[in-house]
Design goal:
single chain; alpha+beta; Aminopeptidase; five-stranded antiparallel sheet; four-stranded antiparallel sheet; 4 helices; globular
Amino acid sequence: MTVKPAIETARLWLRPWIDADLAPFAAMGRDPRVMAHFPALVDEAQSKATAVRAMNHIGEHGFGFWAVERKSDRQFLGFCGLKTVSFPCPIAGEIEIGWRLAHAHWGQGYAHEAAQASLDHGFGVLGLAQITSFTVPDNTRSWGLMERLGMERRSDLDFDHPELPPGHRLRPHIVYVKTP
C-alpha cells in the first residue's frame, strides 16, 4: 500500500502508519536493545496501542510520530516526528520530537535525517516557536543526537517521570530545547 508521505528526505519517507508497520513495530518493542531505556518490553497489543495513539495524534493535529520508511526498499525502520507532551511535567503541552528505530537501522544516520526533517517541518511548516525532547540520562545515543541536532540542554526543565515510581532507575529525565 502506498501512502502520501508527510515529509520526504533523501533516503526516507515519514508517513502515516499502515497495517504492515504493526508487526515490525511490535518486534521493536520486544527487542531489549531498542527498549533498554524504557520501563519494560512491550507485547504486540501494547505496540499496536502505541501505533494507534500515534495515528490518532496525526489525525487530530496533522503531525505526530510518523512511520519512517526507507525509500530504496520500502522497509519500515521505526518512527520519528513531533507530538504534544501529554503528561504532567515542566514541558507539558509543549511539542516534543521523538524517535525510535529498529536496532538493525542504528548507526546509519537515519534517526538524524528523520529528526532534522521533523524539526524543519515543525519550524517551517507548522511555525512552532520551540521544540523539546527528553530522555533518561543514561540514553547517551538519544541525547547525543539531540546535541547534534543543535538542541540546547535545559537542566531547569529536567523532571522525574510521573508514570514511574520514586527510585526507579528510569524516573529522572533530562530535557533539550530547540528554537528556530
